[in-house]
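Reviewer comment 2.1 asked that we show a complete input and output for one of the modelled complexes. We chose the pyridoxal-5'-phosphate case, as it is the one discussed in the main text.
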Amino acid sequence: MQMSNRISAFQCSPIRRLVPYAREAAEKGIHVIHLNIGQPDIKTPKEALEAIHNYGEDIIEYGRSEGEVELRRGLVKYYKKYGITVDEDDIMITTGGSEAIQFIFMTLCDPYDEFIIPEPYYTNVATFANIAMVTLRPVTSSPDDNFALPSIEEFEKRINKKTMGILLCSPNNPTGHVYTRGELKALLELCKKHDIFLVVDEVYREFCYDGKTFTSILSFPEYSDRIICIDSFSKRFSMCGARVGAIVTHNREVLDSALKLAQARLCPPAVEQVAATAALTAPDEYVENVRAEYEHRRNVLISSMQKIPGVRCSLPKGAFYFVADLPVDDAEKFDIFMLRDFSYQGCTVMFAPADGFYVTPGLGHTEARFAYVLNEKELLMAAKCLEEGLKVYRRDVMGIKE
Ligand SMILES: Cc1ncc(COP(=O)(O)O)c(C=O)c1O
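Response of the prediction step:
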């Protein structure tokens, strides 16, 4: 049977497409250390788990399409802690941040409209854009300056009649870059000048390191009609499987329009919204401890990887990812080698080849994205596997004598 041309053109997620090789390795008894996916081993707040255990309803009913009012009120209080004033009607609950991004593309863009995005970028955005038939216009950021925001001129050059907005992610997946207040302000001025939206994915808001302060896009009320924030409970409260996220904007027209999509999918998950509401009551130390743990893990993995000959990576300032350039001919080929042909003391490591995080063909070919979501022992073993694997791959596959 013939599948659609549309689906044939979609990519398999570079984060997950090598999973069959990882399964085969596991079947052979090899312990695969998964640094390919942002699935933390951190415990979900007990408040959220207790809420699920105590869910007392007789029927799990459909709820409101825009999300339950208790959860939206909880979020209003949560944002207040960051000095951000929003109303419960400025918030739509979505089935994860993923659905929030899809709703925004569908709401703001007609087919073949354009969004500008710094690359490397969160790769699943490619599929969300494809679903909405939106063209992503990349502005390439560089490892040489830690993937800082490219110049405003580069963004402006890509603006045309079809441009509906700019999509940023801060703290950034995959680069770990955290955009400064000055960078955000400059982009907002540009968006104002050309009357387009600035959408910022802030799902890693709390995960900033080295004392760096985070600036939310919601803290620029003077531009509020063109600002949209994407949010999620997945990483902040280590509840990725709950599928609870949000769109936050003062622009009611955006939310009223997106509501048509929300109504068609009926409602976000009901029990999980109860859990998310409870997660918001967890003491502030929960998120602070998680942040400190990631900062420690970042230091462990980066310092180990920087010692591996030929590996280039710099200290990310936020989220829990970084992009490293590897001394190989092809990062995907090397990843497959690590899973299929290599193990060190019964272990191997899986990462995400970075070419799928670029829109521009040919970029990121020797780069990989690493997620430092596992404990210190696993991270140290992962770095050791990588070091040993690189030696064997370069000698046996690339034919390099060192
Ligand atoms: C930058 C970014 N945005 C959005 C998402 C989607 O998160 P979820 O749909 O689990 O809320 C992720 C998940 O990894 C992400 O890294």
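Residues 56-279 form a domain with the Aspartate Aminotransferase; domain 2 fold (CATH 3.40.640.10). We note this here for comparison with the apo prediction described in Section 3.2.
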